[in-house]
Amino acid sequence: MDTTSARTLGELRQTEWASQIDRPYSVRDEMRRNLVAMLENGEEPFPGIVGFHDTVLPQIENAILSKHHFILLGLRGQAKSRILRALTGLLDEKMPIVAGSEINDHPFHPISKPAKQLIEEMGDDTPIDWVDRDQRYVEKLATPDVTIADMIGDVDPIKAAKGGHLLSDELTMHYGLLPRSNRGIFAINELPDLAGKIQVGLFNILQEGDIQIKGYPIRMPLDVLMVFSANPEDYTARGKIITPLKDRIGSEILTHYPSSVEDGVSITKQEAWIDRESTAIDVPQFICELVEQVAFQAREDKRVDHRSGVSQRLPISLLEAVISNAERRSILVKEKTIVPRVSDVYAALPTITGKIELEYEGELQGSEKIAREIVKRATAATFDSHVDVNLCAAIIDWFEQGGALKMAPEERSDICLKGLGVIPDLFSTVDISGLAPKKDPATMVSASELILDGLVAKKRISLNESRGYVRAQPKPQMPPPFGHHDDLSFG
Predict the structure, then answer these.
(1) 491 band by pLDDT with thresholds 50, 70 and 90
(2) How many Å apart are CA 209 and CA 223, to the nearest integer?
(3) Are both 201 and 272 inside the same structural domain?
(4) End position of a domain, from candidates 254, 277, 293
(5) 298 and 439 assigned to the same domain
(6) I want to staple 314 with a disulfide (CB 3.0 to 4.6 A). Which of 60, 65, 247, 355 is the partner?
(7) With contact defined as beta carbons under 8 Å apart, do 209 and 69 qualify?
(8) Residues 201 and 288 in one domain
(9) Residue 13 to residue 75: CA distance in whole angstroms
(10) What is the CB neighbour count within 10 angstroms for residue 416?
C-alpha cells in the first residue's frame, strides 16, 4: 500500500516503514541518507543560498554526513537563519507519529507514557497521523529570560488535578520545546545569550540524547538534531558560552558576507521587493551594483563598527527604497516606466543610516555624513568598473571651460535628456561603456548621471547644491605657517 495512506499501526506495518520495527532511523540518519541521494542525483541541497557553494555549504554537508550537531558563527545578515530553516529540505516529506502525540512519538518505538498506553490499549488499531517536514523544525531565539521549563519542560499541576495523577507521574508533565522537537530539528539562535544553567541543561541532549524533567527519574531518549547560530565574538568570549557545551557541538562553521559584488547583487535581487503592482520597472545593472557597493564600502570603512558588521539587509532595503523613490518620481511626472538613478540612492540614505553601527569617530561625524561619503565611494567604484575615465576628457573639459548643468531630481527623463545633450561626448561615452541603449531616455539619463556622479566622486568635476554640476573646485591654499614673514621687512 501507499506509504502515507496508512491510518493505523497495523496498516503502517504493511508499508516500507516496517523496516524500522526493529531499528528506527534517527533524524540524523534520515538527513544523511537524503543528502547522499541528492548529491548522487546532482540535486541542490540548499536552493536559494547564494555565495556559499565553495565555502559554507560543503562544511554543512560534511557535518550532516558526519551526523554532527553544529553551529553557524557569523555576523548579522549572513543568512544563518535561512540556512538552518533550509535544513528541512533534507527530511522526508512526511513522517508517521502516534496520533495526538505531543512529542512526535514513533509508532514502533514510543517514548512517552501516553503513547505507550494508547498502543497497549488499541494495538494495531492505534491511529496514526502524518507530519510534514516543515512541522519538524522548531526555532528558539535565546534570551536571558528563557527557563528550563521553556526548553525542557515542567510539572503541570492542572494536568495532575484533572487526571487525578500524582505529581511524580509522567502524565502530569508539560513538555518544553526540546521534547516537542523529537524526531526533528531544534535550532537555537544567538546561543551565547542563553543563561548558563540552561546551557547546562543541553548537555545530555547533545551527548546521550535524553532529558530529565524536574528531577523525576523519567528518561526520555529524544531523537533531535540540534543546530545553533551565534556571533563569533560572543561565542568565543569568556563567560558567554560554557566550555563543556562548546565541546559537545560537533562542527563550528563560519559564515561570511558575499565575497564578490556579483554574488551580492544576486542575493539582493533575490530577496528585495522589486516588482511593483501594475508598473513597469527597469533597474539598470549598474544601479544594482552601486547599491551593493554601498554595503561593500561600508564594511571597509573604519568608522563603522566591524564587530556588528554590515548586514546584507542593508543593500536589500536600500534597493527597495531606491526603486520606491524612482516610483514616486514616475507617479509625479507621469512616466510609464520606473528607472532608478544615482540621485535616488542619495534619497534613500535613511535605509543606510539605520543599518550601520558607528565607532566613536563615526558618531562624532554623524551617520548621514558618513552614509553620503560611502555612497560617493560606491559610485566611484561602480564608475571604475564600467567607464574608462580617459573617455571623459571632453566632458571634463566642457566643465573646465565654465559649463554647468543642474537637474531637478524629480524631472521627466525626456527633459533631463535634452539638458544632458549639451555636454559633449556624454552620450557617446554612455554608448561605448555599454551602460544604456540610445532609444531608452530613462536609462540614458540614469547612465549619464552615473558618469557625472562618478566624475564628481573622483574629483574631476564638482557638484554644487545651488548650481549643479560645475568644474572641479581648486584645492584651498594653505595659509603660511605661523611666524613666516616673507613679505615683511624690519628696519
Answers:
(1) very low
(2) 6
(3) no
(4) 254
(5) yes
(6) 355
(7) no
(8) no
(9) 48
(10) 22
